[in-house]
């Protein structure tokens, strides 16, 4: 393993360890992912800012969104992954607002981080159609969790919230996509190695998230 590989491996381990520490020490407010301090948004800007913040302050959501963008960079027609994810996240939010229940959403969200990190770490990537389906399924559960912060809101802040979390997720996946492409195009004997290390790090975070949910 070259020096770059060793450096990335060490950083991957540190990311996984720090994620575990974060989860163990996090309090209930941190897990609620409320950008407005637990208050329901009351106007357009509160709804929009809450939508922008929710996928970022929820580290499980953020890790998954980054994984989607990086995976999109290594798959042919991978740009469909973030589109499928964001589209079904909107549907998942609607499901929550209709008071329909999805089973064990936090467990599924944590498992999605673990699975997508693991898939990114693979040397041979699965078929893009399978990945689009998995991204869409994960979007339902992530969107369902997003819906918690907007229950009881009026139409204007609700629509602003949906626009906000859709834009921020598309923006993050676009940045991760470009970063992943740049890594693959960099002069290196193993151009896929940095992305695979990133996959191991994200999978480690997902395992920590899932352990926190299961051990509760």
Characterise the protein shown here.
This protein is mainly α and 216 residues long. The chain is built from 9 helices and no strands. The N and C termini lie far apart (38 Å). The relative contact order is 0.22. Mean pLDDT is 85; it is low at 20-32.
Helices and strands, with pairings:
Elements: H1 3-25, H2 28-32, H3 44-57, H4 59-74, H5 80-97, H6 105-121, H7 128-147, H8 155-185, H9 193-215
Low-confidence stretches: 20-32
Q: How many distinct domains?
A: 1
Q: Report the sheet-strand fraction.
A: under 5%
Judged by helices, strands and strand pairing, the structural class is mainly alpha
Helix content: over 70%
CA-based gyration radius = 17 Å
Order of helices and strands: HHHHHHHHH
In short:
This protein is mainly α.
Key phrases:
single chain, mainly alpha, 9 helices
